[in-house]
Inverse folding.
C-alpha cells in the first residue's frame, strides 16, 4: 500500500527525532553528593591536601585572612593523621585508634587522650566533649553524605564550572557545582566531573560582611600507601605535655 | 553565651561604679563642672555626664551609652545594642545584641569546628576571664604548683590544650 503523505511525514519525523541528540537531563545534586560520599567511604586508605582560607570576620584576633595548608591521611576504620600549617604555626593531629595526640609545634606543647574508637566516633566525641573537630574531618568520616545532609537542609544543582588550577587555569578541572543551604551558612561544593571527588568548598556565613571560608582540595590519592608510622605519635624533644581540657571543664572555669 | 555576657557585665560594672560619684552644679557654656569624690564631674545641658578621677575617666551619654577607661589601660563600653571591654594587653570582648561574640588581640586562633554549614563552624568561642591565648613576651619556663608554667611580670601562666590549641590559665 502506498503510504499517505501524513504517514510519510510521521515516519520522517520519528527518524529525525531518533537522530537528534538526546537533551541531557540536568544532573542530580543529591546523586552527585551520594556518589562522592560513596567513593570516599569505600576508600580504605587515602590522603589529600587542601588550602584553606578564612576571612578575618571568622577568626578572632585576625585583621587579614588566614591561609592554611592542610594535609590528611586516612586509614579506615580508625586511623587519621593531619597537619595544618599557617602563619599561626603548625598543628599536628594523630589518631591511631587508641589514642589521640595533638601537637602545637609553635608553642612546643602536646596533649594525648585515650580514644578507643573509629574515625566517626572520634569526630563525634571531639565535637561533643571537646568542642572541636580535626580540620576537614567531614571528608574523612565513613559517610560524608550523611554529614552534609545533617548540616544542609537544601541541596541544589547549579551547573558546571572549571577550577582555576595551573597557569591561567590551564589545569582546571571541570566540576559539578552543588549548593548546600544550611542554618548558619550556605556552601557551594565543587565535585569533579571526571573522578567524582571534591575540589572546592566555599562556605558563606550569614553574619555581618558575609565572611567566607574557602577550601581548595588537591592531591587526592585514594590508593595511598600508609604505614603504622604515619599514625604513630612521637613527641618532639623538649616538648611539654599538657592537659587537654573539655568544654565542660572550661564551662566550669567560666563560672568561677 | 550567658557566661560571656556576665563577663562583659562584670567589666562594665566597674564603669558604672565610676559614674555613681556625687556632684555639685557649676554651669558654664552648657557644661557644668563639679567635684566628685577625688575627681571632677562634668554635665552637659543635653543630659550627658563625664567623670575624671585619679584612677580613670567615665562618661554617660543622654542616650544611655556608657564608656569608661582606667589608668592601667583598660576600657569598657556599654550601649543599647552592644557592650565591649578591652584590657591592658589588648585582649577584648564585644557582645552584640544578637548574642554574637567577637574577640580581638588575644592572638591567632586556628579555625575549629565542622567545615561546611554547621553553626559550630570556624568561629571560636572566647575564653573566660583568667585564660589567655598568648603569653606576654619575655617569659621564663618554671615549675609552679606542680605544673610547668610560663612566668613573666610576676604572673604564672599554665598551658592547657583547649579546642585543639594551646591556651594559658593565668595563675597569680
Amino acid at each position: 500500500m502506498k503510504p499517505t503523505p501524513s504517514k510519510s511525514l510521521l515516519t520522517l519525523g520519528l527518524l529525525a527525532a531518533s537522530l537528534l541528540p538526546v537533551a541531557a537531563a540536568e544532573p542530580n545534586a543529591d546523586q552527585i553528593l551520594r556518589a562522592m560520599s560513596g567513593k570516599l567511604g569505600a576508600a580504605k586508605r587515602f590522603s589529600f591536601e587542601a588550602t584553606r582560607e578564612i576571612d578575618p570576620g571568622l577568626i578572632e584576633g585576625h585583621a587579614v585572612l588566614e591561609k592554611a595548608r592542610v594535609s590528611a591521611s586516612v586509614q579506615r576504620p580508625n586511623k587519621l593523621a593531619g597537619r595544618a600549617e599557617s602563619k599561626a604555626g603548625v598543628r599536628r593531629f594523630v589518631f591511631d585508634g587508641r589514642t589521640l595526640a595533638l601537637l602545637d609545634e609553635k608553642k612546643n606543647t602536646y596533649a594525648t587522650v585515650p580514644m578507643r574508637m573509629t574515625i566517626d566516633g572520634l569526630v563525634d566525641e571531639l565535637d561533643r566533649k571537646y568542642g572541636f573537630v580535626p580540620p576537614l574531618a567531614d571528608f574523612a568520616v565513613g559517610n560524608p553524605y550523611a554529614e552534609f545532609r545533617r548540616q544542609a537542609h537544601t541541596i541544589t544543582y547549579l551547573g558546571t564550572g572549571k577550577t582555576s588550577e595551573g597557569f591561567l587555569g590551564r589545569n582546571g578541572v571541570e566540576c559539578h557545582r552543588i549548593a548546600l543551604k544550611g542554618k548558619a551558612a550556605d556552601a557551594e561544593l565543587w565535585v569533579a566531573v571526571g573522578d567524582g571527588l571534591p575540589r572546592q568548598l566555599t562556605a558563606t556565613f550569614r553574619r555581618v560582611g558575609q565572611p567566607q571560608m574557602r577550601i581548595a582540595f588537591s592531591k587526592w590519592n585514594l590508593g595511598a600507601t600508609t604505614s603504622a608510622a604515619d599514625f604513630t605519635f612521637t613527641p618532639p624533644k623538649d616538648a611539654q605535655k599538657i592537659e587537654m581540657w573539655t568544654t565542660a571543664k572550661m564551662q566550669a572555669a567560666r563560672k568561677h | 553565651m550567658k557566661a560571656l555576657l556576665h563577663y562583659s557585665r562584670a567589666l562594665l560594672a566597674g564603669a558604672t561604679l565610676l559614674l555613681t560619684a556625687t556632684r555639685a552644679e557649676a554651669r558654664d557654656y552648657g557644661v557644668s563642672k563639679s567635684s566628685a569624690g577625688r575627681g571632677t564631674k562634668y554635665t552637659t545641658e543635653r543630659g550627658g555626664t563625664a567623670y575624671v578621677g585619679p584612677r580613670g575617666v567615665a562618661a554617660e551619654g543622654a542616650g544611655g551609652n556608657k564608656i569608661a577607661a582606667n589608668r592601667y589601660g583598660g576600657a569598657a563600653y556599654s550601649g543599647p545594642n552592644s557592650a565591649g571591654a578591652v584590657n591592658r594587653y589588648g585582649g577584648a570582648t564585644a557582645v552584640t545584641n544578637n548574642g554574637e561574640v567577637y574577640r580581638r588581640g588575644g592572638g591567632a586562633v586556628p579555625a575549629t569546628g565542622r567545615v561546611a554549614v554547621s553553626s559550630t563552624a570556624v568561629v571560636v568561642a572566647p575564653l573566660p576571664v583568667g585564660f589567655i591565648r598568648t603569653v606576654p613576651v619575655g617569659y621564663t619556663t618554671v615549675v609552679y604548683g606542680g605544673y610547668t608554667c610560663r612566668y613573666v611580670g610576676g604572673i604564672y601562666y599554665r598551658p592547657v590544650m583547649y579546642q585543639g590549641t594551646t591556651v594559658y590559665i593565668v595563675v597569680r
User: Anything to note?
Assistant: Chain B has one helix and 15 strands.
